[in-house]
């Protein structure tokens, strides 16, 4: 084949647009619900959900989503990626409708779990289809657009949720998904070609089951520990059981003659290093985004809509830089671009260790912009490196690994950094609450949200309690931000040691097959 001949699909850019629409609705749903939680807790205007029920309305989605990502990436390669995308969109739309009209918290939690099933079917096949319809020389640019859409959706979710809640009832944050999904189904049916692994072989049933059980148990332990503390036997039983099952999965896959994941791939630096970087970055970034929302809404007093708007610099940086990162990788190499992106991310995350109640808000916006810029120059080269280590027909495996690592690491980041935040807050505020009534003291000592709720019952003493709670929260935020920066900094060492540079990244080789042959 002549080196100038493009092997991509003739409608590949239109197909990319359809995939971005499909992806937007899934990623948006990860963030849009957060701004509706207070309304859902209202017994008059919402469902009267308790704090635990609110947590599970988020976590039922995350658990199912993370647990099934890998499985659906593998099955999509075998059964047909277009088919899985259509099934996922229909399930997601149906679950969104059920969520919007849920009559009780239990119904909402169940509907959100069904949304997780649909989302897990959609996300991995979007990246698989990109790898299948784009020539390797254009794939980096296409993945840059894909990554930019992810970053944009993460940031505009709170904005869209806040805007809907100002004009409509709480179910609108779910109902907005339905017309988008309907459009996506029509466009996928018309434009996206079917593709699958031409030599699927036998289905690795035990491997798939082990991956699901291990990931769900591990994710459950991480999330539950972050919410209620890591000092309970149930949490550690879930985490240890998850790790043991995943270790069993790895051992089984190494011996299997038809593995769903060839674990020997992790001996290939081009595959293993970016997977590690994705995990480290999302651990750090999701944890910081979690406490940033509390900082902006409680300490600084912004509304949910205003808070969402303050995240727009992050989105703008993603939207601008992610599509351009492929050209940067071509010019300077994936190692250099990823290292610079990580350095900017470390700088932005670490800067929150110096933010307080009086920091000018434009300074905080600069930090968000730097974080967006850094992540925009990490994710595309990392994802491209992961995908190029696999032949096209195995694209679903690479996509599933990348997305599963991102979800699990993000959950772990929120859980661990949230636990650090809570522990530091409680230790700092405990010595200052002695004069409060017992009920207010317990609430204020639990969290900054509890302190604000208690302050509403105290009358003249309220400003003093709020000042104490804000000081304790900001101090705790500094510890969590410093830890996040250290975790992200480890990613720089991984990139410098193991990520391939410019001379090691072939521009025209088809999807990394020589590397696989060498690794085998």
TrEMBL record:
Keywords: Cell membrane, Membrane, Transmembrane, Transmembrane helix, Transport. The chain crosses the membrane at residues 12-36, 56-75, 84-103, 109-130, 142-161, 167-191, 203-222, 234-251, 271-296, 302-322, 334-355, 361-379, 408-427, 476-496. It is a multi-pass membrane protein. The keyword Transport applies. It comes from the Bacteria. Residues 15-503 form the Major facilitator superfamily (MFS) profile domain. The keyword Protein biosynthesis does not apply. It is found in: Cell membrane. This is MFS transporter.
């Amino acid at each position: 084949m002549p080196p100038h001949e493009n092997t991509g699909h003739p409608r590949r850019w239109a197909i990319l647009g359809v995939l971005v629409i499909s992806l937007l609705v899934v990623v948006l749903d990860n963030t849009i619900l957060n701004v509706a939680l207070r309304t859902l807790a209202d017994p008059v205007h919402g469902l009267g959900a308790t704090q635990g029920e609110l947590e599970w309305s988020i976590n039922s989605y995350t658990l199912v989503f993370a647990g099934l990502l890998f499985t659906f990436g593998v099955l999509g390669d075998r059964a047909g990626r277009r088919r899985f995308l259509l099934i996922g969109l229909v399930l997601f739309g149906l679950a969104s409708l059920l969520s919007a009209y849920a009559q009780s918290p239990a119904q909402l939690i169940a509907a959100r779990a069904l949304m997780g099933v649909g989302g897990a079917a959609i996300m991995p096949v979007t990246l698989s289809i990109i790898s299948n319809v784009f020539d390797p020389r254009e794939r980096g640019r296409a993945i840059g657009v894909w990554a930019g859409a992810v970053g944009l959706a993460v940031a505009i979710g709170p904005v869209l949720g806040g805007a809907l809640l100002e004009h409509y009832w709480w179910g609108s944050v779910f109902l907005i998904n339905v017309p988008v999904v309907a459009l996506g189904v029509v466009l996928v049916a018309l434009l996206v070609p079917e593709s699958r692994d031409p030599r699927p072989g036998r289905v690795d049933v035990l491997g798939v089951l082990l991956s699901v059980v291990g990931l769900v148990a591990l994710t459950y332990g991480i999330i539950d520990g972050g919410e209620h503390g890591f000092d309970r036997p149930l949490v550690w039983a879930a985490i240890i059981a998850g790790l043991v099952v995943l270790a069993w999965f790895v051992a089984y896959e190494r011996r299997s003659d038809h593995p769903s994941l060839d674990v020997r791939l992790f001996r290939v630096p081009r595959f293993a290093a970016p997977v590690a970087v994705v995990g480290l970055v999302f651990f750090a970034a999701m944890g910081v985004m979690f406490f940033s929302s509390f900082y902006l809404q409680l300490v600084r007093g912004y509304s949910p809509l205003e808070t969402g708007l303050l995240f727009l610099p992050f989105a703008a940086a993603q939207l601008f830089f992610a599509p351009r990162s492929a050209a940067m990788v071509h010019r300077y190499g994936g190692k250099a671009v990823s290292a610079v992106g990580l350095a900017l991310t470390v700088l932005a995350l670490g800067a929150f260790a110096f933010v307080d109640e009086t920091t000018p808000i434009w300074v905080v916006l600069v930090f968000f912009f730097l974080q967006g810029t850094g992540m925009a120059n990490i994710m595309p080269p990392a994802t491209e490196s992961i995908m190029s280590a696999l032949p096209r027909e195995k694209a679903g495996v690479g996509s599933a690994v990348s997305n599963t690592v991102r979800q699990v690491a993000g959950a772990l980041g929120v859980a661990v950094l949230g636990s650090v935040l809570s522990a530091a807050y409680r230790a700092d505020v405990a010595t200052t609450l002695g004069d409060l009534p017992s009920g207010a003291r317990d609430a204020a000592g639990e969290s900054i949200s509890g302190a604000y709720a208690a302050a509403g019952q105290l009358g003249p003493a309220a400003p003093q309690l709020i000042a104490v709670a804000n000081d304790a929260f900001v101090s705790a935020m500094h510890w969590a931000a410093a830890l996040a920066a250290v975790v992200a900094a480890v990613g720089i060492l991984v990139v410098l040691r193991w990520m391939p540079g410019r001379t090691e990244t072939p521009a025209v080789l088809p999807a990394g097959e020589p590397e696989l042959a060498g690794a085998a």
